[in-house]
Amino acid sequence: MAESYRIAIVGSGPAGLSAAARAAQLGISHVLLEKTDHLSDTIYKYQKGKHVMATPSQLVLRSDMDFEAGKREKILGTWDDQTAGHKVNVKYNAEAKAIAGQAGDFTITTTKGETIRAETVVMAIGTQGNPNLVRCPVGEGATVQYQLDDPGEYIDEHITVIGAGDAGIENALGLAADPEQRNTVTIVNRSAEFSTAKDANIKALLAAEAIGRMQILRETTSSAIDKGMITFDTRDGEVKVRCDRVIARMGSAPPRGFVESCGASFEDKDGKKVRVAGTGIEFSSADRVSYPVLSPTFETTTPGIFVIGALAGYPLIKHCMNQGHDVVEFINGNTTLKPADEPILVGKFKDLPGKKSVDEWLEFLRTNITILDALSPLQMREFMLDSEARFYRKGETIFERNAPGSSLFAIASGSVLVQVSPADPGITVPIGSGLIFGEVGLISGRRRGATIIAAEDSVCVEISRTAALRLQSQVPAAKAAITRISTERQLLQMFGSGLTSADLGGVLDGATIIPVSAGKPVITEGEEGDDIYVIRSGSMVVEKTVGGKPVFLSYLPAGSYVGEMTLIAGGRRTATVRAAVKSEVIKLSGAAMRAVMEQKPALLEKVRRDMAGRQDVNAFIEAKKDSFSGVVDMYSSVATFLVDQGVGEATDVLLIDENLCVGCDNCEKACADSHDGLSRLDREAGKTYAHLHVPTSCRHCEHPHCMADCPPNAIHRGPDGEVFIDDTCIGCGNCQRNCPYGVIRMDSVPPKKPGLLSWLFFGAGPGPGEPSKKWSYAHAEPGVEKPKKAIKCDMCSGIEGGPACVRACPTGAAIRVAPEDFLSVSRLEREES
């Protein structure tokens, strides 16, 4: 006869253990089912000696089981002792295979064939048993594993860790911790930022990188894994490195098939059991990483079955343990219990108008903001812990043009006005309830592009950059909504022509975002196709085959589009368009765009004008391929050289014409005299092709590498595109290490020099330019060692007349240009004329 309990708890992780301990304390008949022979298998499988964090620190722990930050072994030992002390009824080696029945009468069948009956079921099974697998080809003999038990087992190996969440970072740190092991460790992160990891782990990772303990590959994915070798797709193209072992820690997904079947009804069809629609546990979406739909009391769509812990979307241990405590209280009839984070959220909502409870505010925000609609009530609580709800009066400024800021705003009620014209604040564009704004700062890190004011009394949610990135990584529907909105606005801004959001509906429905590796084409000369490609990030170069070899035509930065010629004029592609650096493009259906142009003559005219300009370039090349071929070849070679020197991701670059440069170093001296005595450029350093020299000076990249890991967020982009470092710099050196072009230096500001006239007439001071180290030491304040900080070009922002290096050049050899202005065959046309 099957054993019978009031509560059956499946899974003995932190959530399940806490639930079982609460049931034991309340004297409730219960059983805790664990598929292994030990408690908390996920933490049991943590690497040996792992330090387990107890975050968020502001959250109160209300479980009957103790938990504080410490070593894995100590925590497990404490839980073993307390499980026995609380007389928790644990059944080991009891893996649930099926859960059938209804509230008050469930039957759980184990893989061993045992049956257990329970009035209610609490599922706390986690997701670690269903890891995300590597998506690239894995060759025969290659070693790929999804778990790291003991980092000490691996000696003198080249190990790649794929995934830079908490698990991946902790594995990499463990493998690199002991220099005696002689492991060469590389950790791979698909983005420039560590959006899903805890701050403490990120800091430890960056510290290990700083001392050379490991290598971090940012904006990188694996494209092939072979025995002894791994191939990466990086910003700069394909890279192959030695690799003896891959440890993939790319997250996990709920065991959806099993969960959906719990409590479901089945019927026979053609000899097979088929689940009856509308029965079983429902998920929030069809996406693989979505979570079950839950009530505020953790109950699923199958009454009597509850879900807590990682399976509910709450992976943090303290959250899980609180849920375990609370779910048993709810089952036991405690209807007044509020979650442990209630006081924190009360504080966040206290300044909003209207008398709503925390649950009411959470539901109001979730249902009224498009990007939050797919979140469960539980996910909303966690999300709001990292976000701020704000109330703005009509006419109040939310943020101003050129203000720093990378947060995202979402409108829950009311509306805002975007002041699109700096000269006339009266020219505005409205953004209504449910939508977002501020996405430019989120995507590009640029300063605010416009002033935003409240058009009426409005409630908005300000989402920190970290919370927004985490939201997109964990909730596919939110990422899709943000992507659609940002794509729509990019198209409206780029095409103009009186287009509205309604006009672009069909185009957006078929739009896809495609990552493009450096050097890979999106359009190939001679092929068929009429789709249009919008450059979302990165940059492209356009080439045409002349005399059997590619000739560089032009450079296209983010915000440009290509492919309109075959859409309008028909025929085959007339040029090749390839990525200068790792990029993203938005592919727009040619048929959908043609339909919009038929309805919008102004758009058709704009596209035709753009097409005419490109046809002129093609015609120029064809006309000059014989008489002007040498110059065209030279220009094409120079352009290719510049792209290879990082100009492909620059927004502003310093170039020196060696035919005009006399080596006076006035550029360096002027730079130093304009910046506290420290020069931001090295004229002699850098590479030269023909007469064109690229000195060591900041490129002000579209997506700056230096911004990726700045702990105090001291690096910003100014109104003219300049990337600068403010006074909050702590001198950690992360930006210097991350810059691939060697244009950032760490140094302390030298003592103030006497004025130029004092040097001219009295010989006081070291003279123009950067003072020597000897002079600086001699005139430093006694006993005071100035801390070092990061030094880089800021394009002389705020200095009248523009960049000092250009103004000080007596021969005009030094120029600062945007790549799209310089890298174009149209320059040859001007030179010839």
UniProtKB/TrEMBL annotation:
Assigned keywords, A-Z: 4Fe-4S, Electron transport, Iron, Iron-sulfur, Metal-binding, Transport
Domain Cyclic nucleotide-binding: 371-471, 495-614
Keyword Metal-binding annotated: yes
Residues that span the membrane, as ranges: none
UniProt xrefs under Pfam families: cNMP_binding, Fer4_11, Pyr_redox_3
Alphabetical list of InterPro entries matching this protein: 4Fe4S_Fe-S-bd, 4Fe4S_Fe_S_CS, cNMP-bd_CS, cNMP-bd_dom, cNMP-bd_dom_sf, FAD/NAD-bd_sf, RmlC-like_jellyroll, RnfB_subfamily
Gene3D superfamilies: 3.30.70.20, FAD/NAD(P)-binding domain (3.50.50.60), Jelly Rolls (2.60.120.10)
Coiled-coil region(s): none
Domain 4Fe-4S ferredoxin-type: 652-684, 721-749, 787-820
GO MF annotations in UniProt: 4 iron, 4 sulfur cluster binding; metal ion binding
PANTHER family referenced in this protein's UniProt entry, alphabetically: DIMETHYLSULFOXIDE REDUCTASE CHAIN B, OXIDOREDUCTASE
Protein name as annotated: Fe-S-cluster-containing hydrogenase component 2/CRP-like cAMP-binding protein/thioredoxin reductase
Lineage: Bacteria, Pseudomonadati, Pseudomonadota, Alphaproteobacteria, Sphingomonadales
